[in-house]
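Dear colleague,

Following up on yesterday's call, I've attached the two folding results inline so they're easy to grep. Please treat them as preliminary; we haven't cross-checked anything against experimental data yet. The first protein's sequence and structure tokens come first.
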Amino acid sequence: MDTIAACSGGALPAAIGIVRLSGPDAGPIIEKIFSSKDENPITKKKTYHLYYGKLLSQSGKTLDLCLAAFYRAPHSYTGEDMAEIFCHGSPAVVEGALRHAYALGARPAGPGEFTRRAFLNGKLGLVEAEAVADMLDAQTEQEALNAAAQLDGAIGTPLRALRGELTGLCAHFYAVCDYPDEDIDPFEYSRASETLLRAGQQLRALCAGFERGSLLKSGFPVAVVGLPNAGKSSLFNALAGSDRAIVTSEAGTTRDVLEQPVALAGGRVLLLDTAGIRTPEGEAERIGVERALQAAQRARAALWVFDGSQPLSGDPEALPEALRGKPCAAVVSKNDLPPAFDPSELEDRFDAVFSLSSKTGEGLDALCSWLSGLIPPAGEVLVTSPRQAALLRRALDSVDAALASAQAGMTADAFLLDVEQAVRFLGEVTGEDVSQDVVKDIFSRFCVGK
């Protein structure tokens, strides 16, 4: 492979800029770009150590005083010779270092190319490589914890073991058939059924966890509903921390559903601001009310907002059918104005009641605490990749079909065809049996420098 270089330190300017090189010429290039304080080549020093020195421009002048490290293959992130320069995060300094590297034979790295090389060189499985992208995209502590566990092999390692077990099941049968005179243990149908049963249970648990994994990434959906002008959009803006929704004294301002993820206690909820639910006065409002009800159907919980400065109108128990059976809190808004009713009147009708002011922020902490309790607690490591989930479902279908055939008394050569298909699907998940087009597509979604 050739040698690649890129900025790996994020947007510039910044406190620190990171220039990363990987490939067979990483050593010769870093020797010309970086001069350590004792003037000994950094490639002759201990790897995984930072050394202080000068970053040199193409003209040989000092561009920066910085730190650098050299990692000798195969003991590096990519499995190749690698070098990293930790300089001041000035665009001029970083770009000057990269220009020098390109002049010496490196080329600009493509999106995710460092991690792609790590995968191709066997440093990471495909599940672990995809976890790197999840780690970079993590917005909450729970997402980071889940990505770190995947990166550490919490999903990839058992899947590779399962694939090996199913492969061994097939190999055992074919060995018995091909070498009848050898001293090989007989193929036992009961043991094969037990293996397939355990495999199905393992795959079923991973598939079931994908829905929770999706909520982990997108947020636990909570609809903000109620009558027009109750203060829904003001509450939405207060929880979002910005003026996402238009707020006026005119009823029916909100016509579409606005979405906003909000980080809470390590996880996040996805707030859905909806149109006021009433008999619509026009076509646009009718569509808005329909979308509000659709959002309520999609939501896992709801905040029913009441205007605390106005008498209760309608029947507070008359929640939309889409909300029945879901956690639903009453939010009595505008408590900075004279109250028109006692919020305790709602206590026997909702899971919780909160009195607050979106304008002053009073009472928001208690509501946020309740919302935090809705977020599924961190525990099991969850599948978050739709690609992986789809393949795991197909592998599960194949295993279930094989188990049913085995239990029905079909011959092993018949039901093992389904097992072999499951092995292929699992290989696509882990990267042991995946096309280059799929690999290219996965890593094209990464940022440059990772």
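Below is the second protein, in the same order (sequence, then structure):
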Amino acid sequence: MKPGYLLLDTVIDDPETYETYKAQVVPLVEAFGGEYLIRGGEMTVEQDELWQPNRIVLLRFPSVDHAKAFLDSEAYAPVKAIRLRVSRASAMVIEGL
């Protein structure tokens, strides 16, 4: 089974409330077999002709199906609502190697 990755580029509009989101989302990610590989941090952009990233978050799940199940879960829905209220993002699920 190939891993599935969830890649997000996020702009946080309300950092204080976003901390609440972060505290609630971590156990949910883990419950779906996910793990954080990148969660913000210093970034050097070498080329930005198509995209100017802000804050990158990268999660690995056992499969694309696991990543999608997390995103579509009833457990994540109220937590996701917090994220949508206090930040803007681009998000994608990608099949890995």
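For the second protein, one point worth flagging: The chain has a mean pLDDT of 97.

Best wishes,
A.L.
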